[in-house]
TrEMBL record, chain A:
Ranges where the ABC transporter domain occurs: 2-229
Organism: Plebeiibacterium sediminum
Lineage of producing organism: Bacteria, Pseudomonadati, Bacteroidota, Bacteroidia, Marinilabiliales
Coiled coil: none
Cited Pfam families: ABC_tran
UniProt-recorded name of the protein: ABC transporter ATP-binding protein
An MF annotation (GO) of this entry: ATP binding
Keywords, comma-separated and alphabetical: ATP-binding, Nucleotide-binding
Signal peptide positions (record): none
InterPro entries: AAA+_ATPase, ABC_transporter-like_ATP-bd, ABC_transporter-like_CS, P-loop_NTPase
TrEMBL record, chain B:
Keywords, ordered alphabetically: ATP-binding, Nucleotide-binding
GO molecular function terms attached to this record: ATP binding; ATP hydrolysis activity
Family annotation (SMART domains): AAA (SM00382)
Protein name: ABC transporter ATP-binding protein
PANTHER family: ABC TRANSPORTER G FAMILY MEMBER 20 ISOFORM X1 (PTHR43038:SF3), ATP-BINDING CASSETTE, SUB-FAMILY H, MEMBER 1 (PTHR43038)
Domain of life: Bacteria
Automatic annotation (TrEMBL), chain C:
Keywords for this protein: Cell membrane, Membrane, Transmembrane, Transmembrane helix, Transport
Phylogenetic placement of the source organism: Bacteria, Pseudomonadati, Bacteroidota, Bacteroidia, Marinilabiliales
Organism: Plebeiibacterium sediminum
Gene Ontology cellular component list: plasma membrane
Primary location group: membrane
Protein name: ABC transporter permease
The keyword Plastid is assigned to this record: no
GO molecular function, one term: ABC-type transporter activity
Span of the signal peptide: none
Segments crossing the lipid bilayer: 21-40, 172-196, 223-245, 251-274, 286-306, 341-361
Amino acid sequence: MISIKNISKSFEDIQAVKDVSIQIEEGELFGLLGPDGAGKSTLLRMVNSLMIPDEGTIRLWDLDPVKDYKKVRYIIGYMPGKFSLYTDLTIEENLEFFATVFGTTVEENYYLIKDIYQQIEPFKNRRAGKLSGGMKQKLALSCALIHKPKLLVLDEPTTGVDAVSRAEFWEMLQSLKEKGITIIVSTPYMDEAQLCDRVALMQGGEIHACDKPAHIVQQFQYPIRGVKTSNIYKALLDLRTYKSTHNVYPFGEFLHWVSKEQLFNDEEVIIFLKDRGHLNVQVRDIDPDIEDCFIELTQFNEKINA
Amino acid sequence: MHNQSHEINSTEPIIKVDKLVKRFGNFEANKSLCFHVDKGEIFGFLGANGAGKTTAMRILSGLSKPTSGEVWVAGFNVNTHPESIKKNIGYMSQKFSLFEDLTIWENMRFFSAVYSMSKKQFKERGQELLQELGIWEERNRMVHDLSLGWKQKLAFTVAIMHKPAIVFLDEPTSGVDPITRRQFWEMIYEASAEGITVFVTTHYMDEAEYCNRVSIMVDGRIDALDTPENLKKQFNALNMNEVFIKLARPAVNSSQ
Amino acid sequence: MKRFKAFVKKEFLHIFRDSRTMLILVAMPMVQILIFGFVISSEIKNASIAILDKSKDELTQEATQKLLSSGYFRLDKYLKSEQELETAFKRDRVKMTIVFEPGFAKHFYSDKTANVQLITDASDANTARILSNYASMILRDFQQSHNATIPNGNSLINTEVRMFYNENLDGVYMSVPGIMAMILMLVSAMMTSISITKEKEFGSMEVLLISPLKPFQIIIGKVTPYIFMALINTLSILAMGYWVFHVPIKGSLFLLLFEATLFTILALSLGIFISTVAKNQMVAMFMSMFALMLPTILLSGFIFPIENMPFPLRMISNIIPPRWFIIVVKKIMLKGAGIAYVWKETLILMGFIVLFVGLSIKKFKVRVE
């Protein structure tokens, strides 16, 4: 079990992490959602013992990453944000190197990485620098797993990776979870929240919500509608001027329109838009998703400085 | 499966690509691409990592030459007039946007000079754009002090400062927060309403839906090209993410 | 130990797979020493000389004839007095001036000893050495043939060689220790500092830190291959110096290699220290260039003699490690000195090692900033 209590960390004049407290259960697949600069990497580095918090305490089971960092480093598998393997070594050489460094052999824990590694094994003599994004990711994950860690810490493993490889990566995480490994993964992609047991929404160094994705969505307190007309951009600008608008923003094919009034009639919205010359006006019921919640929770947070 | 059912604009398309092939040694990165982009269109250029998007983008922006085929951008042939193309386009990528150690205003002045704007033009246009963004007072701040979201919004502003015919955006919103991402897309809508053609790549599939038309590259070919709505119908999918995965998954796996 | 071996293996793979590194490690030492060697030692023909004949007797004229007919020297001018020496060297660019003492023949025949001064421009040390050697040889020849013509001929022509501008005559002999210091510095300090910061830059250092590898294992693992490379370089420089340029190794080869290894370790500890301070490869490279390479070239006595430096620079040269190494190598190679004569410098080198290793350990972080 991982407990993070009142953790803060500053760099010079920037407070990267502000009073963060999270509990992660054993065997959980926990998602840390937030954009670049939210403080995700800093938080993960404090968990994995690479950084010391200014304030607060962290416990990985009974270990303190500050004092017991040597022990912590045996039980953690870590994939940093950047692709961090040796590009001039082959797939096989990378894997063997990390296995030896962690005091194990590829054979010993092969069962753990088998599903992942088999997909890249035919190319084991290819240098890591020549791999595609998805393959690099699989290799990095194999290397992080080779010593059979209790806790897997993954910093933005899917950033910059195409949707197909991302989907596959999450399937791999799911199967690792089934093997009993606790996983903390950070991501800027909100749609990946639904693949986690629980998520924390992070922005500006703070946690704005931390719960099961379904629970976070239930907390969304405003009625929300999907709106579409023949001219989406104009509809967006027009709806901003509508009296009961709380928020409106593009969301895929539709605009998401959030009402500040609990009771209202869809017809009124349609008439409002039709009056402004919109054709093919559609208003439909939708369920808010994590991204709607994130926008709602962080919309007053915008600052120009990093 | 080239879907050309989309209505053909009466005016000449701003980008015309005919049987574009690019080879590196034995490897064919682009396999006879054919498509066009209309003026003022927001054109989404999707594809898995390594499908050949970057190669094609480099050719379209005059940075490299096709092995064979004809490519016309903003009325110029990339084989014969790459320099004229560069003058008429704007470019922004997630990897490099602005010089970190210059102020906002210094960056803008530099790029205005690169695109040979007059001093007067630059001052007027620069002030207008920064005021629209609401950061005119902040113009003397160093770029490295800005948040990623603001950097990207500014980079886009700089890319369209000289009113190019087309702006190429390479994963412009990667890592940006959901709110800023949407503000960014509003800026794209606005530019498009001003008649600037937008050619954009992204890994966010919801952003694909904001495009007028979307092409999906798989293994060096364009395997689908249509409006997001038609693509969803055609592939019987709820959203673009599904369309993308249905198209690209077999290829991603077989190429490994 | 297994971990350590894996680490060293990985480092060797990095080195062997990067053609640029291989080039620096293997080709550069050869090229450097060839360039220095050949620039300095060129075959001498028709070197212009001046003659100051204070005696003007038959014997001196005969000797002059003999010198000029050898083909090595070309007479630029006769000097009238010592005052003209300076201008002869500076303006007329003569390489050597031969001064016959007054009453040369008289001294030779009656006093049995006549004196000749060979004054050379030793700013080009190698040429100076060769010219004075040739001239001495010719004069010795001349002396012998004359002794044969007179009964009881055992007179002597005493040649006194004087150097202008570089009294110690350091030439190609000097450049071998200097090049060795430079190459070892480059290979050990610069290459290690770059290879460690590279891991920081690419993010792989984070993964290494978080592994059970201990910091000293990471450092020693990084450094071991370069000790080998440096040893190979030392041997190749010595071999080239010995066979191509005939630089002698008068002292013990074993002692020489021991000192070279000591200096390599010193350079490595400097490289490690730089890598703990530098954020990325570029910074590491610049720090190595400016903090290590330039002082090695300029202040260690490699190119400019320390004695001729202004006082403040002489003081600074004391804290330039290669300075001490160069002294040691010169003593061992050229003078045949044993440990009894170089223990002081050896201790200084060891002191530097302790200092930099200590600083590095203090600075090396088991965490990221």
